[in-house]
Amino acid sequence: MLHIKCPHCGIRSQNEFSYGGDATIKRPELGKEISDQDWDNFVYNRKSLRGKHWELWQHLSGCRQWIKVQRDTATHEIFKTLKANEEIS
Amino acid sequence: MQKYSVFSLVKNALSNHENWDLAWKDPTPKKEYDVVIIGGGGHGLATAYYLAKEHNITNVAIIEKGWIGGGNVGRNTTIIRSNYMHDDNALFSEFGMDLWRRMSQDLNYNVMFSPRGIINLAHSDAQMNTYARRGNSMRLNGIDAVLLNREEVREIIPMADFSENVRFPIFGGLMQPSAGTARHDAVAWGYARQADDMGVDIIQNCEVIGFDVSAGKINGVRTSRGDIKAKKIGLCVAGSTNILAEKLNMTLPIETHLLQACVSEPVKPVLDKVVTFGAGHFYISQSDKGEMVMGGDLDGYNSYAQRGNLPTLQHVLTEGIAMMPFLSKLKMLRTWGGIMDMSMDGSPIIDKTHIEGLYLNCGWCYGGFKATPASGWTFAHTIAQDRVHELNAGYSLNRFNTGHLLDEKGLGTKTWIS
C-alpha cells in the first residue's frame, strides 16, 4: 500500500487517489504552430523512467485536487509532493 | 540432439536418468554475430528459433540479463486466444493459433497446449450486442466464435453466480472454443532447446550496457560480458523496453506498468474453461495441478517493481468473488507481479526503427504470452528480410504519428484506465 502525502490533507492511503501519469509533460501552447512530432511527443511518447519519476495523482476520494508526486518507480518510495500549481524544482 | 520420446524415456530410466543431454549449452559470447537478440524470454527465444528454422540464419546470439524464461513468460496466466475484432489483431493471433496447435510436435517438447475454450461474460444487453459484433468479425476472419445466452453459459459454468439478486447478472457470453492455455515455462524451454540445437548461442547473465551506433547504423552492443558486434540487433525486452530505449536516445509510446497474478490452493477439477468477467477486469482458469489461476487489472501507476500491491489484488479478487462466489472459500497460495510495456493504443509494436539494423518488438500490454509464436515468427521475418511481414504491418511504430491506431478496446491513450 502506498501512502501519499496530499499537500492539502496530509498522509492518506493509495485507495483515495487516482493516477494521472507523467507530470513533466507540457501541452504545446495554444495558438502556436506546432509540428506533428511535438504533438506526438505530448500525446503518446513517454520516457517512463526507472527511478525518480514526477507524476500526477488526483486525491479523488478526498479533496479532489490534482497533485504532483515524486516517486521511485523501482522501489515505490515517495520523496516529495507538491500542489498542482507548484513548479517542479 | 536427443529426441524426447517414450523410447528415450525408457532408455534413460534404465540408467537412472543420469545421462540426459543438457537441453541447451552455456556458451561464451563470440566477438561477432549476424544477429543479436536482446531478451531471452518467450519472444526472443521464438525469434531466434524462427530465424534459424525459416530463414537459415544460425549465427545468432540471444543475450539475457538474468536467466531465460525468468520474466513475463514465466509470470503470465498462460491464456492463449485470438478473439479479436480488428483484422490486424485477429489475423496475427489466428496465425499464432496454428503455430500453437502444432508447437509440441514442432519443438519435440510437450507444451501441454490445452484448447479448452474461453468465455467472455456479458452483463447487459449492450454488452451482448458488442459481443455479437465481435463474434461476427471473428468468424469473417475464420476464427471460431459462439454467442451464448444465459442458459447456455449456465450449463458450461454452473459455479458462476446465476442468482437473481446480483449487481452484475450474467446475460450470456462470447466463447472461442479453440482458445485455451499452455505450460508457459515449457514454451520458453522448448524454443531454447531447438534454437540451441540449430546453432544459436544462448548467453545468460549478460546485461546490455549500451549500443554502438554510428552514422544511423547499428554496429553492436556493449554488455557486461564484453562488446559484441552484430549486423542486426532485435529488441525483445517487453517490460524493460524504455530502459534500453533511453540508451538509444529513443522515446517510445510506451509506459511501463505492473501487472499481478495469483493462484489459489489446488482443488479438485471444477472449471474446464478460461472465463473472464465482463463488468471489470478479471480472468480465471484452473491449472492441471488444480490451482485457480487468476489475474486482472494493472496496479495503475508506472512501475518497474516485479511485485504487487494489495489494493489492486483486493479489487481484482472482489470481482472474481462477484462472478464465482465459491472462490471466497479458497486460500491464496501465491501472488506475483511482472512489468508490462503498456503501449498507448493497447496493441504491440513489431517494426524496424530509424536506426538501420535495429528492430523493435515491444508494447505487448496484457497479451504477450499468447503472441509468443506469431511474434517470434513475424519478428524473425522482419529482421531476416529487413521488411515487415503483412501479418505485422499493422504493428508499426509510426502509427501513433500517422493516426492509424489499433485500439481494439477503444481505450485511447490511457490503456491502463478501464
List the SSEs and their pairings.
The complex is a heterodimer of chains A (89) and B (418).
Chain A: E1 3-6, E2 10-13, E3 18-22, H1 36-43, E4 52-58, E5 66-72, E6 78-83
Antiparallel strand pairs in A: 1-2, 3-4, 4-5, 5-6
Chain B: H1 6-13, E1 32-38, H2 42-55, E2 60-63, E3 79-80, H3 87-101, H4 103-107, E4 118-122, H5 125-140, E5 146-149, H6 150-156, E6 172-176, E7 180-181, H7 184-197, E8 201-203, E9 208-214, E10 217-223, E11 226-235, H8 241-247, E12 254-264, E13 274-277, E14 282-286, E15 292-302, H9 310-323, E16 332-343, E17 349-352, E18 358-362, H10 372-385, H11 399-402
Parallel strand pairs in B: 1-2, 1-11, 2-8, 4-13, 11-18
Antiparallel strand pairs in B: 3-7, 4-6, 5-6, 9-10, 10-11, 12-15, 12-16, 13-14, 14-15, 17-18
Helix pairs in contact in B: 2-7, 2-10, 3-10
Q: Which labels suit this protein?
A:
heterodimer, A: 89 residues, Folate-binding fold, four-stranded antiparallel β-sheet, two-stranded antiparallel ribbon, B: 418 residues, alpha/beta, eight-stranded mixed β-sheet, 18 strands, 26% strand
The domain count of chain A comes to: 1
Per DSSP E runs of 2 or more residues, the count of β-strands of chain A stands at 6
Name of the CATH first level of chain A:
Alpha Beta
Quote the CATH topology of chain A: Folate-binding fold
Name the structural class of chain A.
Answer: mainly beta
Order of helices and strands of chain A: EEEHEEE
Q: Compute the separation of the termini of chain B in Å.
A: 48 Å
How would you describe the overall organization of this protein?
The complex is a heterodimer of chains A (89) and B (418). Chain A has 89 residues and is mainly beta. Chain A has one domain (3-25, 39-83): Folate-binding fold (2-Layer Sandwich). Chain A has 1 helix and 6 strands, in the order E-E-E-H-E-E-E. Chain B has 418 residues and is an alpha/beta fold. Chain B has helices at 6-13, 42-55, 87-101, 103-107, 125-140, 150-156, 184-197, 241-247, 310-323, 372-385, 399-402; strands spanning 32-38, 60-63, 79-80, 118-122, 146-149, 172-176, 180-181, 201-203, 208-214, 217-223, 226-235, 254-264, 274-277, 282-286, 292-302, 332-343, 349-352, 358-362. In chain B, strands 1, 2, 8, 9, 10, 11, 17 and 18 form an 8-stranded mixed beta sheet that branches. Chain B has an 8-stranded mixed beta sheet with strand order 5-6-4-13-14-15-12-16. A two-stranded antiparallel ribbon of chain B has the order 3-7. In chain B, strand 10 and strand 11 form a beta hairpin. In chain B, helix 2 packs parallel to helix 7 and helix 2 (42-55) crosses helix 10 (372-385). The longest helix of chain B has 16 residues, at 125-140. The model of chain B has no long low-confidence stretch (mean pLDDT 95). The chains are: A mainly beta (89), B alpha/beta (418). Chain A binds chain B through residues 1-2, 13-15, 18-19, 21-22, 36-37, 40-41, 43-50, 53, 55, 71, 73-76, and chain B through 242-243, 246, 251-256, 300-305, 309-311, 344, 400-401, 413-414, 416.
